[in-house]
Amino acid sequence: MERIVEQTLLYDFYGELLNEHQRQIYTEAVFNDYSLSEIADEYGISRQGVHDLIKRVDKTLTEYEEKLHLIEKFIATKEKVHLIDRYANDYISSSDIGCIHKIQDIAKEIIEDF
Description:
Low-confidence stretches: none
Number of strands: 0
Oligomer: single chain
Mean pLDDT: 95
Shape: elongated
Order of helices and strands: HHHHHH
Structural class: mainly alpha
Protein backbone atom coordinates (compact mmCIF):
# COMPACT_ATOMS: atom_id res chain seq x y z
CA MET A 1 0.00 0.00 0.00
CA GLU A 2 1.29 3.46 -0.80
CA ARG A 3 2.46 5.06 2.45
CA ILE A 4 0.11 8.07 2.40
CA VAL A 5 -2.88 5.83 1.65
CA GLU A 6 -1.84 3.53 4.48
CA GLN A 7 -1.44 6.45 6.89
CA THR A 8 -4.83 7.83 5.86
CA LEU A 9 -6.58 4.51 6.39
CA LEU A 10 -4.88 3.95 9.72
CA TYR A 11 -5.83 7.44 10.87
CA ASP A 12 -9.41 7.08 9.59
CA PHE A 13 -9.90 3.85 11.50
CA TYR A 14 -7.91 4.50 14.65
CA GLY A 15 -7.25 8.26 14.85
CA GLU A 16 -9.91 8.80 17.49
CA LEU A 17 -7.90 6.57 19.83
CA LEU A 18 -5.09 9.16 19.86
CA ASN A 19 -5.07 12.06 22.27
CA GLU A 20 -5.85 15.55 20.96
CA HIS A 21 -2.20 16.66 20.89
CA GLN A 22 -1.17 13.60 18.87
CA ARG A 23 -4.07 14.08 16.44
CA GLN A 24 -3.25 17.75 15.89
CA ILE A 25 0.44 17.24 15.19
CA TYR A 26 -0.09 14.13 13.08
CA THR A 27 -2.73 15.92 11.01
CA GLU A 28 -0.44 18.90 10.46
CA ALA A 29 2.45 16.69 9.36
CA VAL A 30 0.73 13.99 7.33
CA PHE A 31 -2.38 15.64 5.90
CA ASN A 32 -1.46 19.32 5.80
CA ASP A 33 2.15 18.64 4.81
CA TYR A 34 3.62 21.07 7.32
CA SER A 35 7.35 20.82 7.91
CA LEU A 36 8.77 19.67 11.22
CA SER A 37 9.99 23.23 11.81
CA GLU A 38 6.57 24.74 11.17
CA ILE A 39 4.91 22.32 13.58
CA ALA A 40 7.64 22.76 16.18
CA ASP A 41 7.22 26.55 16.07
CA GLU A 42 3.43 26.32 16.27
CA TYR A 43 3.38 23.95 19.25
CA GLY A 44 6.49 25.17 21.04
CA ILE A 45 8.38 21.89 20.86
CA SER A 46 11.58 20.82 19.13
CA ARG A 47 11.77 19.46 15.59
CA GLN A 48 13.07 16.22 17.10
CA GLY A 49 10.05 16.12 19.39
CA VAL A 50 7.72 16.48 16.42
CA HIS A 51 9.61 13.79 14.51
CA ASP A 52 9.50 11.41 17.48
CA LEU A 53 5.79 12.01 18.02
CA ILE A 54 4.97 11.30 14.38
CA LYS A 55 7.02 8.08 14.43
CA ARG A 56 5.38 7.04 17.71
CA VAL A 57 1.89 7.71 16.33
CA ASP A 58 2.68 5.75 13.14
CA LYS A 59 3.82 2.84 15.28
CA THR A 60 0.76 3.06 17.55
CA LEU A 61 -1.68 3.14 14.63
CA THR A 62 0.09 0.19 12.99
CA GLU A 63 -0.08 -1.78 16.26
CA TYR A 64 -3.83 -1.13 16.49
CA GLU A 65 -4.26 -2.61 13.01
CA GLU A 66 -2.04 -5.59 13.86
CA LYS A 67 -4.30 -6.35 16.82
CA LEU A 68 -7.73 -5.48 15.44
CA HIS A 69 -7.39 -6.04 11.66
CA LEU A 70 -10.20 -3.58 10.90
CA ILE A 71 -8.60 -2.23 7.72
CA GLU A 72 -7.83 -5.74 6.52
CA LYS A 73 -11.48 -6.72 7.07
CA PHE A 74 -12.70 -3.53 5.44
CA ILE A 75 -10.65 -4.13 2.28
CA ALA A 76 -11.70 -7.79 2.10
CA THR A 77 -15.36 -6.86 2.52
CA LYS A 78 -15.07 -4.12 -0.10
CA GLU A 79 -13.65 -6.67 -2.57
CA LYS A 80 -16.51 -9.04 -1.83
CA VAL A 81 -19.07 -6.28 -2.39
CA HIS A 82 -17.47 -5.61 -5.78
CA LEU A 83 -17.89 -9.31 -6.58
CA ILE A 84 -21.54 -9.18 -5.52
CA ASP A 85 -22.04 -6.20 -7.81
CA ARG A 86 -20.40 -8.04 -10.69
CA TYR A 87 -22.55 -11.15 -10.17
CA ALA A 88 -25.69 -9.00 -9.89
CA ASN A 89 -24.86 -7.37 -13.23
CA ASP A 90 -24.15 -10.79 -14.72
CA TYR A 91 -27.53 -12.00 -13.48
CA ILE A 92 -29.32 -8.97 -14.94
CA SER A 93 -27.78 -9.61 -18.34
CA SER A 94 -28.11 -13.40 -18.37
CA SER A 95 -30.77 -14.42 -15.79
CA ASP A 96 -28.34 -17.18 -14.74
CA ILE A 97 -29.52 -18.35 -11.31
CA GLY A 98 -25.96 -19.46 -10.59
CA CYS A 99 -25.08 -15.78 -10.15
CA ILE A 100 -27.62 -15.52 -7.32
CA HIS A 101 -26.09 -18.55 -5.61
CA LYS A 102 -22.65 -16.95 -5.87
CA ILE A 103 -24.03 -13.73 -4.37
CA GLN A 104 -25.53 -15.72 -1.50
CA ASP A 105 -22.23 -17.51 -0.88
CA ILE A 106 -20.31 -14.23 -0.75
CA ALA A 107 -22.93 -12.69 1.54
CA LYS A 108 -22.57 -15.65 3.90
CA GLU A 109 -18.77 -15.17 3.92
CA ILE A 110 -19.19 -11.52 4.84
CA ILE A 111 -21.60 -12.36 7.65
CA GLU A 112 -19.31 -15.09 9.00
CA ASP A 113 -16.32 -12.71 9.00
CA PHE A 114 -18.09 -10.48 11.52
